[in-house]
Amino acid sequence: MNETARIGRKHPRRIPARQGIAAEMVAGQTATILNTHGKQVVDTWAFNAADMSEVMSMEHSRTAMLKIAPQVGDTFVTNRRRAILTLVADTTPGVHDTLIAACDTYRYRDLGAGADHANCTNNLHAALAAIGRKAAEVPSPLNLFMNVPVGADGTLEFRPPTSEAGQYVSFRAEMDLVIVFSACPQDVTSVNGMEPTDAHFLID
Amino acid sequence: MNETARIGRKHPRRIPARQGIAAEMVAGQTATILNTHGKQVVDTWAFNAADMSEVMSMEHSRTAMLKIAPQVGDTFVTNRRRAILTLVADTTPGVHDTLIAACDTYRYRDLGAGADHANCTNNLHAALAAIGRKAAEVPSPLNLFMNVPVGADGTLEFRPPTSEAGQYVSFRAEMDLVIVFSACPQDVTSVNGMEPTDAHFLID
User: Fold this and answer.
1) Does B117 touch chain A if contact means CB atoms closer than 8 Å?
2) C-alpha to C-alpha distance for A50 and A179, rounded to whole angstroms
3) For chain B, is the Cβ count within 10 Å smaller at the N or the C terminus?
4) DUF1989 domain: which residues (chains A, B) (predicted)?
5) pTM of the predicted model, to two decimals?
């Protein structure tokens, strides 16, 4: 049985379009995030389960990895420079983003979409509240499948994901942690191919 | 009288080598940061003076600027996507960093330099405490003069600054704010040319 078939048999949980969901992981478990329809960005955060002030940090992880985006084998670290998640599989072309903030009320106001537009920052807070957790801050997210190429002159551009339906990434938990996913509701720029959809995840 | 002479006559304040310093700015004032000896990185943070939970955010600023580093005319924004600092002058070659976390106790422990090594994170807290202020979190800093080129393959490299003695950058305050500078004490990697030195700043 190949890996995709294995995942299919395990009944992944749904990350509903435009919404967030949080889950607990024990060290050594694997989280697999499926880009079910291919073009959905999934904002991802991780917190030390024993101390929510210790957070997966993009700026500390870039320093540790000496890369702007992870490749299989790379480990994300916390704001205390401890290993938290290792990328152990990636069936996509490997395009993910660590540079861009989670969308929020202010972003959609600025884009003219109205301040009541669903957003990843509110999704983070709601998803944590649903499992009785709370974040002290909103860390810069790991934007799975998000395609923001850096030009030779340092300019950034928002483009649709390069991933295809059913492709996935898997992370090993390096500590007991809380992981949060938000199926990004961005429908003003092309980061989700203009059509926010469900995604799925599996912890095993 | 040229600009450098003007700054020289105004008696800039010292940012002592390996230390931090904080100052208040009123909207419309200009902060000029001089790389006195040429190769010193200055980690820089800004906070809304009326609400220290509103912070200059590198991840929100990259989204707003669509660049990984600022050029003259670019405006940094807060975690509420409001303008906070605009780069109005830059006599250096324009190489600054927004990707790398401030150094901290954990960084020097990992580098084998000992956990009691001076670091920019502790400098931030100490500098704010010295003016009766407190940060709820440690935002990702604006690393002035820091040279961390992004390769075509997304890899990062730590190199010495490209700036020369006496070169400077100037920022206009877009709101009443608290600004904090740390003359980075990093002497294990080459980011400060291996020799941390004083820098200077002027607010007028």
Assistant:
1) no
2) 13
3) N
4) 14-178
5) 0.95
Contact call for residues A178 and A31 (beta carbons, < 8 A): no
Range of the domain at B131: 3-196
Q: What is the pLDDT of residues B124-153, one digit of tens each?
A: 999 999 999 999 899 999 999 999 999 999
Largest CA distance in chain A: 48
Residue with tokens 């700026």: A59
- CA-CA distance, A140 to A102, in Å (whole number)? 7
Residue B202 in domain: no
Chain-centroid distance, C-alpha A34: 11
CB B61 within 8 A of CB A100: no
A101 → closest Cβ in B60, B69, B82: B60
Among candidates B24, B30, B39, which has minimal Cα distance to B7? B30
Q: What span, in angstroms and rounded, lies between the C-alpha atoms of B66 and B51? A: 26
Question: What is the predicted pLDDT for the residue at B10?
Answer: 76
Write the residue in B81, B100, B157 that is nearest to A59 by C-beta: B100
- Report ipTM for this prediction: 0.94
Which residue blocks in B43-132 are alpha helix, DSSP H? 58-65, 105-110, 120-130
Residue B204 lies in a domain: no
Locus of tokens 């060290």: A27
Domains in chain A, number? 1
- Chain A residue with the nearest C-alpha to that of B157: A66
- What's the Cα-to-Cα distance from A94 to each of A64, A89, B80, rounded to whole Å? 19, 10, 30
Question: pLDDT tens, B158-167?
Answer: 999 999 999 9
